């Protein structure tokens, strides 16, 4: 594979040796990239994009104003249909793939149903096979108060402007620019837009892995931060615990109750102890629910836990520890001889994404183009994951923060900027044109 990348800026990449586990999120040995020269043909691409600014903001507004929280299947379908039409207009063959479902393991029970994913392919020649990825969903549910795009000078505020509807617009307009200049006539491109990234790509992971194995390079249009592209990422995992006890009147029959909340509380304290900053492993019991009423011994309680780890060995160790803690019965009602029962579901849904020389080569190329366009980019280590981690884990070199800069992701403070959207779209158009023609 290495010979595929000789034309891009690998030579300018300075790669330092890494001591695993010694970096904190945000730190990274810096990748350096010299500004490359933008050719007249590439200048035509960036000029074309500059003239599209109003259309880009209009299109961004349209998809930001449609709520597409992961569980809002109707909303995701609408956003997907818009992108489907846009890609079809560029000549892509499009199809949807069933989103699938996953157990919720909540006290309410039931499965979580995901919206369908979109695959768009364009095979017009013999270029390198590129897999372009983004996700349609956001973390904001249908009843969130954060639903609209606000434009304040250069600032864009709204659900998904950074994570990652801004990235979808950057990808789309980079492709439109290539189409306008006749550069999609000899390509092998696949666009995968999945619906469930914000819940860990639990339904789409097999599809991502299958497509990743069929391509030569991966490009993920998730946002970047503070003008830094992400070189490497922690791994992510998640655990769900459901504890079942026995309901009883808290006053008249306290001794006949088995408290699920009491049992879960012990487990939460033990699980939180697994955080080890020295090893760069963190756990967060981020969601807890349980009980029925103040005066009822709680018959059920649930917890959702987030796991982060610098390498997959430490991830697997967290899984073992959580299963061990979940299996311990911390409490027991000796009056009726009953302890609560615990069901556990644990998954390392995104492997750690180590520094990879071929991914570095794509990132360096992007950085070199950005510098030529007037913006110097740095690089970083991120505690957050993207589907690029899945793609690279099955052998596809992947650059995964090609979208516009953003801050405040996953909060009502989420924002990006018009200037960042514009320069990243230009960067991506030039990058794609080089990767296609290289
Ligand atoms: Zn995202």
Please sum up the structure shown.
The protein is an alpha+beta fold.
Molecular structure report:
By secondary structure, the protein is of the alpha+beta class. It folds into 2 domains: about 1-235 and about 350-435, 3-Layer(aba) Sandwich (Aminopeptidase); about 235-350, Alpha-Beta Plaits (2-Layer Sandwich). Helix content is about 30%, strand content about 25%. It has helices at about 40-50, 55-65, 75-90, 165-180, 205-215, 260-270, 310-325, 355-370, 385-395, 420-435; strands at about 95, 100-105, 110-115, 115-125, 130-135, 150, 155, 190-195, 215-220, 230-235, 235-245, 250, 280-290, 295, 300-310, 340-350, 380, 400, 415. Helix 1 runs antiparallel to helix 10 (about 420-435) and helix 8 (about 355-370) packs across helix 10 (about 420-435). The longest helix has 20 residues, at about 420-435. The protein is elongated. Bound molecules: zinc ion. Zinc ion (ZN) binds near residues 135, 163 and 197.
């Amino acid at each position: 594979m290495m010979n595929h990348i000789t034309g891009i800026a690998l030579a300018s990449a300075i790669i330092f040796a890494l001591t695993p586990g010694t970096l904190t999120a945000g730190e990274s040995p810096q990748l350096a990239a010299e500004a490359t020269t933008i050719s007249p043909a590439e200048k035509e691409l960036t000029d074309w994009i500059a003239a599209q600014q109003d259309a880009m903001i209009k299109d961004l507004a349209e998809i930001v104003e449609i709520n597409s929280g992961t569980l809002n299947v109707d909303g995701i379908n609408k956003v997907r249909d818009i992108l489907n039409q846009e890609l079809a207009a560029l000549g892509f063959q499009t199809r949807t793939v069933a989103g699938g479902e996953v157990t919720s393991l909540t006290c309410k029970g039931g499965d979580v149903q995901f919206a369908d994913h979109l695959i768009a392919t364009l095979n017009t020649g013999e270029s390198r096979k590129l897999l372009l990825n983004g996700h349609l969903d956001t973390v904001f549910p249908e009843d969130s108060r954060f639903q609209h795009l606000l434009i304040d000078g250069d600032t864009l505020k709204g659900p998904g402007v950074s994570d990652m509807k801004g990235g979808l617009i950057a990808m789309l307009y980079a492709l439109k620019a290539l189409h306008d200049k006749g550069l999609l006539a000899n390509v092998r491109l696949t666009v995968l837009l999945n619906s469930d990234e914000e819940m860990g790509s639990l339904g789409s992971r097999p599809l991502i892995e299958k497509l990743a194995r069929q391509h030569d390079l991966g490009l993920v249009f998730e946002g970047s931060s503070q003008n830094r592209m992400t070189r490497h990422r922690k791994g992510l995992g998640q655990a769900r615990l459901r504890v079942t006890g026995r309901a009883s009147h808290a006053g008249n029959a306290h001794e006949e109750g088995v408290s699920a909340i009491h049992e879960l509380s012990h487990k939460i304290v033990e699980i939180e102890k697994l955080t080890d900053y020295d090893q760069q492993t963190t756990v967060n019991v981020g969601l807890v629910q349980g009980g029925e009423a103040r005066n009822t011994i709680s018959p059920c309680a649930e917890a959702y836990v987030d796991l982060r780890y610098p390498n997959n060995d430490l991830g697997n160790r967290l899984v073992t520890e959580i299963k061990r803690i979940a299996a311990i019965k911390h409490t027991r009602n000796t009056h009726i001889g009953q302890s609560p029962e615990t069901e556990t579901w644990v998954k390392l849904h995104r492997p750690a994404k180590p520094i990879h020389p071929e991914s570095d080569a794509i990132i360096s190329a992007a950085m070199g183009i950005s510098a030529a366009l007037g913006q110097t980019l740095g690089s970083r280590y991120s505690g957050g994951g993207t589907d690029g981690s899945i793609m690279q884990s099955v052998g596809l070199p992947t650059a995964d923060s090609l979208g516009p800069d953003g801050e405040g992701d996953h909060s009502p403070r989420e924002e990006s900027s018009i200037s960042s959207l514009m320069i990243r779209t230009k960067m991506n158009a030039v990058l794609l044109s080089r990767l296609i023609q290289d």
